[in-house]
Amino acid sequence: MARRKTVFFVLALLLLLSPLVLTACNRTPASAGSPNKTATTAPTGTPPSQAVPPKSPSSQSATKQVDLTLYFPTPNAAGLAPFRRQANVTDGAVIQAIFAELQNPPSGWPGPLPSGTKLLGASVKNGVATIDLSPEFRSNFKGGSSGELATIYSIVDSLTSLPDVKSVQFLLNGQKQDAILSQLDTTQPLKFSKSVLKS
């Protein structure tokens, strides 16, 4: 009788433990089953620290050296004299480069542009260079007919030395003027003038 009780007890114990044993057997390690949903995958591609930064607009600009012929008033007011210079021109802005150079006359020579003059805009169409000058071009002009010729034709003769410029139309703050400085008619484009050159 004691033996039957022992067998019965063992069977009962096995029945109770069998669900636990089966559950443990059915479990699989995370690495062998479905991927762990909380795991993160390393991103592909170039790491941010090694990414190539985009080029800035300034680094994409094309700069080249250009030969210019500039005309400056002589110290004795005898007329204009030509000077050859090389200038760095960015994105084809050669007219802007000429204006920058005209504000840097040879040592001991007068500057042709009235102080404070700014080039507000420039374009070339059908051989005509249209330049828009700031109000200082007129307000700071010191006067005199010879000074007017020297100032105007320093610009005109310098710009018409460019192969695609045949004449120059002056604007003051976006507007045509009968005489942008004093007496010289500037309603129409002006062409290169040999008469103002130093004889």
Short structural description:
The chain has helices at residues 2-26, 94-102, 136-139, 145-159, and strands spanning 63-73, 80-90, 119-125, 128-133, 167-172, 190-191. It is an alpha+beta fold and 199 residues long.
Detailed description of the structure:
- The strands form two sheets. Strands 3-4-5-6 form a four-stranded mixed sheet.
- The chain has a domain at 62-191.
- With 199 residues, the protein is an alpha+beta fold.
- α2 (94-102) runs antiparallel to α4 (145-159).
- The protein starts with a helix and ends in an 8-residue tail after the last strand.
- It has helices at 2-26, 94-102, 136-139, 145-159; strands at 63-73, 80-90, 119-125, 128-133, 167-172, 190-191.
- The chain contains four helices and six strands.
List keywords for this structure.
two-stranded antiparallel sheet; alpha+beta; GerMN; Sporulation and spore germination; elongated; 199 residues; signal
Strand line-up of the largest beta sheet: 3-4-5-6
| Total helical elements | 4
N-to-C series of helices and strands: HEEHEEHHEE
- Look at the helices and sheets and give the structural class: alpha+beta
Q: Outline the low-pLDDT stretches.
A: 21-25, 28-59
Biased composition (Low complexity): 38-48
InterPro entries: GerMN
Keywords: Signal
Signal peptide: 1-23
